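Hi all, long-time lurker, first post. I run a small reading group and we've been trying to get comfortable going from sequence to structure in the token notation. Rather than ask abstract questions, I figured I'd post a concrete chain and ask someone more experienced to write out its structure so we can walk through it together at our next meeting. Sequence below, copied exactly:
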Amino acid sequence: MDWSLRTCGRRGHETFAPDEPDLRARLTTPTPAGEAWRCLRCGDFVIGPPRRSGPADQAPEVPRGRLLRDRVIMRLLAAERVGRALLIALVGVLALHLRDSREQLQRAFDNELALLRPVAEQIGWDIQGSELARGVNRVLDLSSTAINWVAVGLFVYAGMLLVESYGLWMIRRWGEYFSVVVTSVFLPLEIWELTEKFTWLKVALTAVNVAAVIWLVWSKRLFGVRGGGAAYHAEHSEESLLTVERAALNENRGRTPAAGVPPAAGS
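-- Answer (accepted) --
Happy to help. Here is the structure in token form:
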């Protein structure tokens, strides 16, 4: 997929007219339909006035190619984090509801258990001693203080996920670091939960987190990996169309003979 063309098709072309005459000449061309300007994202010439203008150093940073693909991946991660945050916040709300209505829930559970017991005995299932019944009883036996702390922990974790999702969605450098740190801190707990009770949902969620940490650290050069922040920003700058055109312009100037100096023999 051509990520640059895909983005231009959705958002429109990003044309820019630099104040520097030599660089300006490389980004525009006359056509029978009028002046055309080169898009900083996809590189195509677009007929019509430029969207922006000014000194080249003040040109907007326009990601291209792989950088655009990386943005799509980061925003998918951000959306997944929002989904987790909402689910965890819902569990926190249910925990507070449980705190205020434990007695009613206990009576309702005991009544349902009594109704299911004859059916369970027919199929040979000890429902009273089952893991489901023990788990529900453990939850209902929690004190109000314990339930409050559980709810607080869930809300704090949901808030951290929302902060992480904001940083990833807005493509912030701090968001990448925050995501790696928060995800790594909770990975041992997720792995321990897998050893306690294996489910494919837990495996999928843990795999997503492991893949996200590895991908962010490697592709975004976090914590000094592959040259760190300096190499990361240099990579962004090198992929800028303005940087490429400026380098080509400087190279052409270096090859132009000085005034009054004849070209070398054979040139």
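A couple of things your group might point at:
The chain has ten helices and five strands.
The beta strands are 16-18, 28-31, 34-38, 45-47, 52-54.
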